[in-house]
Fold this sequence. Notes:
This protein has 135 residues and is mainly α. It has helices at residues 14-26, 30-33, 49-54, 89-99, 103-119, 123-133, and strands at 40-44, 65-68, 84-88.
Amino acid sequence: MSLQGQSPRFAPTAEEIETLALDALNRLPKAFHDHLQGVVLFVEEFASADILKDMEIDDPFGLTGLYTGRPVGQEAQTGDAPPTVHLFRRPLLDEWVETGVPLEALITHVVVHEVGHHFGLSDLDMHILEDMVAS
């Protein structure tokens, strides 16, 4: 089988997923931006075994993103780590392939959901916010 004349196709890298996530964050309404200054974004292959165990998730492909930290408005405590949004590349890629949803839309959905936890938003508010940032 020859692939001559065809562009090679590779799964998006962690850096490409990070770029899509940052683009989604940049499309959030300006009122959100100041409150996201201290939030750290990580793109990892999978959630750690400890995270999966703590969340009682057996399948490492079952978690595409995670927010850790205190919601806006909750006072930080001594020793708190900065708030973080974790995106898990391999589960995201699996969901992308299985659902056929455009990757940018999937990344936006997960980012908005995790950022929604930072702001203490309800699921309905997260859906409204996601509609606002859809490209």
